[in-house]
Amino acid sequence: MQEENGTAEGAIRAAFEIMNDLHEGRKPKDWTDLEPLREMVFVVRQRIGELRRDDSLFCWAIAILMKELGDTKGAIALLRESRENMNSEGELANLLAKSGQTDIAATIMKRLMASSPGNYFLFLQTADLLERTGRHSELDTLRFRELSAVHALPVVSGVRRMELDSLEEFAQERPEMEWIAERWRRLYPELGSRVESSWRYLLAKKDLEKVPAAYSAASRNLFVRAGDGEIFLADDTRTRILLLDVLPVFCLQAIHQKSLENTDRWIRMAHRVEPTQIQIPIDVLPWADKVFPKETVDGWFDLYYQSMVRAIEAFPNDAVSLNNTAWLCALCGRNLDKAKEFADRAVAIRRDPTYLDTLAEVEFRRGRAREALELSQQCREMEPRDDQHKKQIRRFSKALTPEHE
């Protein structure tokens, strides 16, 4: 891209250095505004055009950066100028919807759907926009077409790209999730049963009233994936993965039914399958605290806690085990003084934002919201685009307002 006088090369190099600093979460020296970035975009796109190359991927990446820097209008303008591709079109629709131009966003998403049959994540976004803009007949047509497309596809392409956490909001609010889950189960039993079980569990662990539906889905998942039962004859990874998929739901179902005997059985089985799988007690025990005596729940917590302590004793400088044990204690509301010790040790070994986030949570649970906020602000400086730190800062700041102090 170098011109004879070297001007273009110098401008591009300087602007890319700034962009790299931004992506790494560092504020560039003498940074004042977005003008160097705009200059770089203009120069690079001009040269890309001279070379007769496609600039859409470049424009998409820059638009993402401009959005994160607060220049939504600039990002929209850039995406509208660039050549169309799926990434650029999807991001443009997202930005337009957020800026209130929902009808245009819906039209763009419909165009994307025409080239991506079976992509349920795209379908849910499009359906949401069509409904919000009152285009109900188009939504009905889209539903009918997707049914036909899914039936014709040998593999549901969207399923393989799914991100369950991203779909959690849709799973709570959109009736289309029920429709899609039923279709997947009929056409692709193993894949569909696992997908449904996973997202129903996401809902159940936040709302105990949704546990029965999650339990039915988990039972179906176990039956379909176990096949003829040979999987249970082998002590292998497949069996453990399958059991760890369903046992947390069985625990919640027993708690929902207020069955102490069944809850004890499932929690102990889950511990035998994977003694250091801390997500299970983190999801289950806070609900058990609402139903069963504290000393009983303390005993279940201790199963996992002692397993983690033994792992630390075997490898005292394993920052991951130290961090995970502290996180287990914090989210289960137990052994908080030991949690502080473990979290401090993990941070001393490596000052990682994940470990600092755990330490912040421990401090918050110990009633030290101000210290927790300071730690989360440090995390934000290290990872400015991580939503976890933003959520924690809002949460800890709220606890420091006068009505909470």
Structure description:
The chain is 75% helix and 0% strand. With 405 residues, the protein is mainly alpha-helical. The chain folds into four domains: 1-98, no CATH class; 101-187; 195-286, no CATH class; 315-405, Serine Threonine Protein Phosphatase 5, Tetratricopeptide repeat (Alpha Horseshoe). Helix 3 packs parallel to helix 5, helix 7 (120-132) runs antiparallel to helix 8 (136-152) and helix 21 packs antiparallel against helix 22 (387-399). It starts with 6 loop residues before the first helix and ends in a 6-residue tail after the last helix. Residues 1-5 and 150-168 have low confidence and may be disordered.
Overall form: globular
**How large is the count of helical segments?**
22
> Percent helix among the residues?
over 70%
Mean pLDDT: 79
How large is the radius of gyration? 25 Å
Q: Say how many strands there are.
A: 0
Please tag this protein with its features.
mainly alpha; 22 helices; disordered N terminus; 405 residues
Helix-strand blueprint:
Elements: H1 7-23, H2 35-50, H3 56-68, H4 72-81, H5 86-98, H6 102-114, H7 120-132, H8 136-152, H9 157-160, H10 164-173, H11 176-187, H12 189-204, H13 211-226, H14 237-256, H15 260-273, H16 279-289, H17 294-314, H18 319-332, H19 336-349, H20 353-365, H21 369-382, H22 387-399
Helix pairs in contact: 1-2, 3-4, 3-5, 4-5, 5-6, 6-7, 7-8, 10-12, 11-12, 12-13, 12-14, 13-14, 14-15, 14-16, 16-17, 17-18, 18-19, 18-20, 19-20, 20-21, 21-22
